[in-house]
Structures are given as structure tokens and as C-alpha cells.
Amino acid sequence: MYADIEKRFRKKNKILFSRESLCLQNLNDLIQRQNHRTLVMWALDCAKLTLKQLESKYPDESRPRTCLEICETWARGKIKMPTAKRAILDSHAVAKEIDDAEYGALCHAIGHAGATVHTSGHAIGLPMYELTAMVLKYGINDFADPVTEKIDYYIERMQYWQETTDKLELEWGGFLMDVKKDSKAKTPKIFNMSFASVYPLYIQKAEKKGRTKAEVDEIIFWLTGYDSLSFQKQLDHEVNFENFFDEAPKFNENASLIKGVICGYRVEEIEDELMQKIRYLDKLVDELARGKAMEKILRSRAEEPQSY
Question: pLDDT digit string (tens) for 209-227?
Fold first, then answer.
């Protein structure tokens, strides 16, 4: 899940996460499905914690706070873009002045949160920089759990604002009321990713917790109906997730017994059929890594497992 982050860290990259980072694909897919107003509320909301952490070390530095305040005013249509742009650039400028990689990344995260008012493409910049700061804080050997928790937090807050934003009937600038832009939906990137590119990460997640590749394979075979030969053929052909599940010999009828939360989603409530199948697999591998017994993971009608 974090192999690309570790690689970037070894190369001493300043930004350790990207739009293509596997760990951000669930969040990125969720971002792509939101209207601009929801992304603004989400970014400004999440950035409050980022600001709190920054000010705990630099209490006299006011520019990042000013950035968020001015950008919210901009979102309400009460000021023009040049004033907000200056405030955003000022937040980024702090990062260069303090000569502190961890807290400088927080300044950039806040700048991207504010810039989300201008264009939704900046929304992913907030987690890219804030998570980079977390890796620098916890170190390359200990960042995985806190980063995973933070990504889950981002997803939870996005789901909250998805349900809440337009119910609040807030005042918005006219540029944030473009219904045509809001109606655009994009295919989740994971649908077009090759299964072979993610398969090693399932194994890595299991093996880090003392489980085995054979157990991961058993889960995949149970869920999809593939056997070792047909599965290897799909890996060799590098089929994407959509084709992998579409061509599954027999999707297990007991998959409907898989319940609980994974990647911020409650799997039994996911409406898109393909996305639900992908999350079923994510959930089963997660249960394996958490130490659950195989006989419990491979559901049967005789005993419906407790969701968690």
C-alpha cells in the first residue's frame, strides 16, 4: 500500500504522496464524485486541524490562518480572486521561510486547501502535503498506522460534507454555483488499474501481519471462483479490475454476508456493483491482516459473521 511512499522517501523527494499513490485512490475517487462546494467545505474543514498543529509550533505565524479565513470569504463571494490568491501564496511562502520540512509541508497543505476554492484540482493537495508531514513526523518505519487513520478521517469528513453541504443553504460566490460542472462524474481510477499491480500489495499487507500469500490466494479464489491457473492467466494479461471481476468464473453468492467498514465505506451499502466487489476483497484481506481465522473470513450461510 505504501511502497511508492517508501521509494520517494529513499529518494529524498520533498512530496512523498501523489495523485497516483495507491493509498490515496479511494479518497481521490471520492473527490472526483463531489461538487465544487462540497470540496471547498471539506478542504477548509480538514485544514483547521492542520492549522492547529502548525500553530502549536509557530504560534506567531498568522499567514496560514489568514489564508483560510480569506479563502472562506472568497467562497462566499465577498472578495475577489486577487486578494485570495495573495493570501494563498503567502501561506506557501511561510514554508520556505521557516526551513522546517515537516511544518513547511503543513503550510503547503493549508495553501492547497484555500486554493480549492479556485479549482477542485487543489483538493488532493491538502492530503498530499499533510500526509508527507506525518511521514516526516513519525519516521519511515512507523508512519503507516497514523497515515491510514488520517486517510480514513479524510474519507469520513468527505462523506459528512457530501451529505451536509447543500443542506446548509450557505451563501456562495457565483463561480461555485455552476450546476454543469457539478453534474460531471468520472470513472473511479481503480476500475482501470491492473489487478496485477495491486495484488502484491494485498500480499504485503498480509505478510506484514504474519499471514501468507497462500491465504490471500484462497480468499481471492473463494470470492471470484478463479483457480490458480485461471488466476495466473489474468495476472499475466494484466487485466484491469473491471475485467478481472467481470470475467470471474463464479462470484461467491455468500459475498453478501461480508459487512463492515473498509476504506471509509460500509461495504453492504455501496451501490456500484463493481466498487462493492472491490471493497469486498479489500475487506477480506483486511480481516486476514487483523488476525481473523480463515474459516470466519470465508463466509457461509451457517454462520453470519459479526460486522465491524
Answer: 999 999 999 999 999 999 9
Residue-wise pLDDT for 260-302, tens only, equals: 988 777 899 888 888 899 999 999 999 999 999 999 999 975 5
Phi, then psi, of 194 in degrees rounded to 5: -70, 140
Report whether 262 contacts 282 (CB < 8 A).
yes
Condensed to tens digits (0 to 9), the pLDDT of residues 94-112 reads: 999 999 999 999 999 999 9
For 56, the grid coordinates are: 502549536
What pTM, to 2 d.p., does this model score? 0.67
Contact 293, 302 (CB under 8 A): no
Torsion-angle region of residue 169: left (phi > 0), alpha (psi -120 to 50) or beta?
Answer: left
Q: Report the C-alpha gap between 303 and 114 in whole angstroms.
A: 50
Name residue, grid cell 469486498.
Answer: 280
Q: Is 24 exposed, middle or buried (0-12, 13-18, 19+ CB in 10 A)?
A: buried
Set out the domains of the chain in order of their start, with CATH numbers. 3-186 (no CATH), 190-297 (1.10.8.290)
Phi, psi torsion values for 265, nearest 5 degrees: -110, 140
